[in-house]
Amino acid sequence: MIMVLADKMISLSFQTTYRCKFVKPYHRIPTSNITPISSPSPPQRGKPACAPKRSGEGVGKGEEGTLCARMRMGQKYCGLPIAILLGLFIFPPTSSFAEPLKALKDGIAAIVNTEVITISELETELRDETIRLRARYDGEELERRLTQKEYDVINRIIERKLQLQEARAQGITVSEKELDQVLDQLRQTQPTVANSTPRSQLREELIIRRMLDWEVHRRLMVSPEEVRSYYTTTQEEFTTPGQYHLRQILLKPQDGESNTDVLVRANALVQQLKDGADFSELAQQHSEGTESVLGGDLGFMRKNELLGPLARALEGMKIGDVSQPVETELGIHILTLEETTPGEPLPFDEVKDAIKNNLFQRKTRAVRGEWLSNLKDKAYIEIKF
């Protein structure tokens, strides 16, 4: 009975492969072409990334491979090895067959070595981003961003699978006791995260972190000389913003006045100032800002504390200059610059730890990227959609 069933399954498998032959289930995609996935531009949603190869064409080195159309109802088991198909029907669906069984019922988005990424797994990770994108975009721009986001997310899932597979190969685990300790700490510091994160997800994150500590962080070092050099060559990053001592005259529309009428009044005041009138006196007489009683004195201010149009008007002004009228949502302003104080460099001892952390993170990203690239080069990765 088993042999008859096996013969039927083999026949079914070959028929299915024939029906779905454009999918090329064992076409290996060179992993170096998977990232960065933003280049080249992703294909249109619902269309193959490239046409099926004609009979007799080979697969050249460095070829990107065929990205298949989305899984259809009649093709959900297309491309699964015959041995898996036989095992699913000859043997009971025990835990060792859980993943391929789920893939048959669901649909395969990608294969990473011996593991599959299902369509539902991809859709789950895409759900929040899809809602956000649909709220902001529509039409062709929405389609383009959704397609790119799919590639971003599938790449992220592939990288997670590869890291967890490598951790298993090296025997890196997280015990129940260690997981409980981390959860206890999270409940004290971030209770929302502790209560909303599944235990299995937290375990995977801890395993990956431990894996990175072993494969990446232990190889990194930031020397005191590197920290000092960065501080010296990027001094502007560690200099406080300069300050500007300003006065202003603020004009607002009076009863029946239009903005044009207010602008006429402002230009007349600017002309008086050019002719030698005292700014403080005109501010007390005409300004409608709360600082008018102080002669329009705003005190020392940084550019980032000013409204955008006022900060731009300040560009190029010298001490004693008077600006042209500047319109903001508050009204029309006239500024004068009385004095400036330059920014001061922060002491090295105050910023050295921040610099060291910054350099360490940069090195971590570079080394981690190289390590992940090596994992991909050694892996069997096939994207099915």
In words, what does this structure look like?
With 385 residues, the protein is an alpha+beta fold. The chain folds into 2 domains: 174 residues, no CATH class; 101 residues, Chitinase A, domain 3. Helices cover 50% and strands 10% of the residues. It is built from 13 helices and 7 strands. The strands form 2 sheets. A 4-stranded antiparallel sheet has the order 4-3-6-5, sandwiched between helices. A 3-stranded antiparallel sheet has the order 2-1-7, sandwiched between helices. β5 and β6 form a beta hairpin. The longest helix has 31 residues.
Global structural class: alpha+beta
Distance between the termini: 37 Å
Give the overall silhouette: elongated
Given as residue ranges, the uncertain stretches (5+ residues, pLDDT < 50) are 1-104
Q: Mean pLDDT, rounded to whole units?
A: 77
Strand content: 5-15%
